[in-house]
Write a structure and sequence with these properties.
mainly beta, about 80 residues, globular
């Protein structure tokens, strides 16, 4: 894979890497924007949210900001 970045990518499908209790997990995810909120949902149905009503500009999981999240390249939309 190419470089990993903290910058939230545009809407669409991308690779995501984030820390779990057992180490890092790398999965495809979907990034979408609804109003002022940014929603990132992974293939394993982990959901991260950012926005003014969701704790601020950082993606958070269950209300706790997650600073381990990195995004990789875009991937084709699954069928």
């Amino acid at each position: 894979m190419s470089e990993w970045t903290k910058t939230i990518p545009p809407d669409g499908f991308h690779w995501i890497k984030y820390r779990t209790e057992k180490g890092f997990r790398v999965l495809p995810c979907e990034v979408s924007r609804i109003g002022n909120a940014i929603i990132v949902r992974t293939l394993r149905n982990d959901t991260f949210v950012a926005g003014p009503e969701h704790g601020g500009p950082e993606l958070s999981y269950d209300g706790v900001p997650d600073k381990s999240i990195r995004f990789g390249p875009a991937i084709p939309k699954p069928k």
